[in-house]
Amino acid sequence: MEKQIAKDLLSIQAVFLRPEEPFTWASGIKSPIYCDNRLTLTSVEVRNHVEAGLAEIVRTKFPEAEVLMGTSTAGIAHAAITATILNLPMGYVRSGAKDHGRGNQIEGRLEKGQKVVVIEDLISTGGSCIEVVNVLREAGAEVLGVASIFTYGMKKGLDRMAEANVINYSLSNLDSLVEVAAEEGYIKPEDKERLIKFRNNPSDESWMK
Prior knowledge:
alpha/beta; 10 strands; 38% helix
């Protein structure tokens, strides 16, 4: 599954690997990878693989799930499709409370004590995902964990998720992606080590040399 999803993401250019021409993140960090999982929605075959995979994660890892909650905005569509497959209710969590109407931050009905799985598209440092989990917990939900499409597997993200007591299962990850990318000629074999070095410490730009 990890390699299949990695192959899917590369095939539709949802993931770009450019170790020779790094992208610049908003934080200023130079990155050899850029991920846009929204593109999975416009490829029917890849979308079917992704939603079937997310549904399988919920079904096998979180069988007690009563509600799916998508992250805003990238996780909303995936939560809706996965909830349809599983015949579960869904909603989503805004990045902040609305400044009009009822001022909701959680959209959709959520009862206190309900068992929730968060649907996320991408996890890097884990910050935004943890914020969503905290909002749901403050509303009285029991958050079982997170099902996501892709994770970088960064130490900072893993540590933060563990500290916040958040369990995540991803369909694919950077290690699998790097293996597939090298096998299929997206990157040179010698670039594998550079990409993993970036993952291990994004602030250390020695991987670019």
